[in-house]
């Protein structure tokens, strides 16, 4: 089969196409023929070595595809059935061996590309808005990179809850998209000072929560956007790592809370994975969650997909199609 292999950390050109053996089916695992692999920002952190993985490594954590074969002890999966996953390393490949407890069934009517597009980013938007900080209809949230993969899904989930949504984006096209997905206000943070804009929109009160995946460029100003007792949810670092800071700042800025969560802690057991995936996939099935696929690339073009995502050229989901 064809798979992408990373032999050393570095730029997108380190993602090399290789011919390898189809994995042997192991007990408790399901061999899946991949229909679509999700590209996520974490794949970039792993490729550059910011998040360490053992090399050689086949990147990709997410995908959807059709059951090819099941290992001993696996029950309930039929050959040809459509399944999806969000935390199985080695997903940039034509076949992926997924542990049974990390796999979910895709409800009828959802195409493989849509399923692959919402597993990791959809469950992230889900835990951020329901568990890390439970949004309410009387709350206002600030979502950075609101037209990104997670961003567009989080905007929609926050609006379904009834919260007021302020988004930030870098371009007018991304602004239009975030507004289409329901954001109430979208700030062009590359041209406008988002802190003063947020103050203006909220009549000086600030927001109850900031969902910040941009990190270095937005973190400290975002603290100034929070109302007293507000929550700073730092869940990514697309612009770079946030440096150390004096915790007293949280006191002086209004007894603020800060957290740095990861999806993998919110789907660590089978029940939480099943419940979150089911909620997200049901929303897609009922057309309550629109899936915006930014770009698809062939599996061999993984490096091009990384370049597109890193250079802020994409809005919504990036997929590789084997
Ligand atoms: N902790 C978790 O559980 C978890 C789970 C999933 C994803 N994440 C994080 O969430 C973030 C979004 O992931 P995603 O896969 O959905 O990516 P994405 O949002 O589609 O892409 C990243 C976006 O970040 C913005 N950005 C701002 N400054 C940037 C810079 N210097 N370089 C590159 N991008 C910049 C860009 O939007 P604009 O052009 O509009 O600025 C860009 O489109 C990532 O930081 C990722 O690590 C965290």
List the helices and strands and how they pair.
Elements: E1 2-6, E2 15-19, E3 29-39, H1 41-48, E4 62-70, E5 82-85, E6 95-99, E7 104-105, H2 112-132, E8 140-143, H3 149-161, E9 164-169, H4 172-180, E10 185-188, H5 194-201, E11 207-212, H6 219-224, E12 226-234, H7 248-252, E13 257-259, H8 263-266, H9 270-285, E14 293-298, H10 302-310, E15 317-321
Parallel strand pairs: 8-9, 8-11, 9-10, 11-12, 12-13, 14-15
Antiparallel strand pairs: 1-2, 3-4, 3-6, 3-15, 4-5, 5-7
Bound molecules: NADP nicotinamide-adenine-dinucleotide phosphate (NAP).
Helix count, DSSP H or I runs of 4 or more residues: 10
The CATH class of the largest domain, by name, is Alpha Beta
Sketch the topology as an H/E string, one letter per element: EEEHEEEEHEHEHEHEHEHEHHEHE
CATH superfamily of the largest domain: Medium-chain alcohol dehydrogenases, catalytic domain
Class inferred from helices and paired strands:
alpha/beta
Helix-residue proportion: 25-40%
Number of domains: 2
Shape: globular
Quote the average pLDDT.
98
Model description:
- 31% of the residues lie in helices and 26% in strands.
- It has 322 residues and is of the alpha/beta class.
- Strands 3, 4, 5, 6, 7, 14 and 15 form a seven-stranded mixed beta sheet that branches. It has a six-stranded parallel beta sheet with strand order 10-9-8-11-12-13, sandwiched between helices. A two-stranded antiparallel ribbon has the order 1-2.
- Strand 12, helix 7 (248-252) and strand 13 (257-259) form a beta-alpha-beta unit.
- The protein starts with a strand and ends with a strand.
- The structure holds NADP nicotinamide-adenine-dinucleotide phosphate.
- NADP nicotinamide-adenine-dinucleotide phosphate binds at residues 40-42, 120-121, 124, 145, 147-151, 169-170, 174, 213-214, 217, 235-239, 261-263, 309-310, 312, 314.
């Amino acid at each position: 089969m064809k798979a992408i292999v990373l032999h050393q950390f570095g730029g997108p050109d380190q993602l090399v196409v290789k011919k390898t053996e189809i994995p042997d089916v192991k007990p408790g695992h399901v061999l899946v023929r991949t229909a679509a692999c999700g590209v996520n920002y974490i794949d970039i952190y792993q490729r550059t070595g910011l998040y360490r993985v053992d090399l050689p490594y086949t990147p990709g954590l997410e995908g959807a595809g059709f059951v090819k074969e099941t290992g001993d002890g696996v029950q309930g999966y039929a050959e040809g059935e459509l399944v999806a996953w969000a935390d199985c390393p080695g997903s940039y490949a034509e076949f992926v061996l997924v542990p049974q407890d990390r796999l979910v069934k895709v409800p009828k009517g959802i195409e493989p590309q849509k399923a692959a597009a919402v597993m990791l980013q959809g469950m992230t938007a889900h835990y951020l808005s329901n568990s890390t900080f439970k949004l309410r209809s009387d709350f206002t949230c600030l979502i950075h990179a609101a037209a990104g993969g997670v961003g567009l899904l989080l905007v929609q989930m926050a609006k379904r809850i009834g919260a007021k949504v302020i988004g930030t984006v870098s371009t007018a096209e991304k602004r239009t998209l975030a507004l289409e997905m329901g954001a109430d206000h979208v700030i062009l943070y590359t041209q406008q000072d988002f802190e003063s804009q947020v103050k203006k929109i909220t009549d000086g009160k600030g927001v109850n929560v900031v969902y910040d995946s941009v990190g270095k460029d937005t973190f400290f100003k975002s603290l100034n956007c929070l109302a007293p007792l507000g929550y700073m949810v730092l869940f990514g670092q697309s612009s770079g790592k946030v440096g150390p800071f004096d915790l007293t700042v949280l006191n002086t800025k209004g007894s603020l809370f800060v957290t740095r969560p990861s999806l993998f802690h919110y789907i660590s057991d089978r029940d939480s994975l099943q419940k979150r995936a089911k909620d997200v996939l049901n929303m897609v099935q009922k057309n309550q969650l629109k899936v915006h696929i930014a770009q698809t690339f062939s599996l061999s073009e993984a490096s091009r997909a990384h370049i597109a995502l890193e250079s802020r050229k994409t809005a919504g989901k990036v997929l590789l199609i084997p």
